[in-house]
Amino acid sequence: MLRTLFPVLVVSLTASQAFEPARAERLSMQGTPFNTAAAGVVLTELTVDARGLVTDVRVLQDLAPFTDVIRGSVRGWTFAAAREGGQRIESHVLVAGLFRPAMLMFPAPDAVRTPEGTPSEDAPLPTGLSVPPYPPNAIGDAYVVTEVEIGESGGVQSVNTLTPTSGFDDAALSAARQWTFRPAQREGSSVPTLAYLVFGFRQPN
Prior knowledge:
By secondary structure, the protein is an alpha+beta fold. It has three helices and 15 strands. A hairpin with a 5-residue loop joins strand 10 (142-150) and strand 11 (156-161). It is globular, with a radius of gyration of 18 Å. The protein starts with a helix and ends with a strand.
């Protein structure tokens, strides 16, 4: 009888101790800055506490003025806190922003130049990225925020949009699926996690 129950008990304990990443529940984005020619990537790492609140925003890659857009926006985001062993825990969440210039053609910039400080192991880090085209039938400027599920190997497993539906969604989703990451780590092992990619579109001149 004990032999039969023991494997079941081990499986149950292992499942209860699994890591569940923080998941965004409520978010918004600030408006696009006027009269800027900047384009490229902003990388930020959020500290999300056990209540699901953002307590710190660390900039890993800066791109003025869009760093302030990301930093000012994410401070008001709320999350379902990460869990481990069934308990809510503090964790780190990657929010990356890719901002297109007001032109049709835009080559992919470097994902990471020189991060300021060392990125936390429990948050993923982009190693390759894709730039969405400006949709041919779209009008105006827009942000699309995507939630990306990243597997243990660093590949994108699934992606969905968190902002209201727009004509920019398909371009953002297609680009997000092509990003690659250094996977998140927990206690020396790679774990699946979530990251948030913000795509900024500006209407070509």
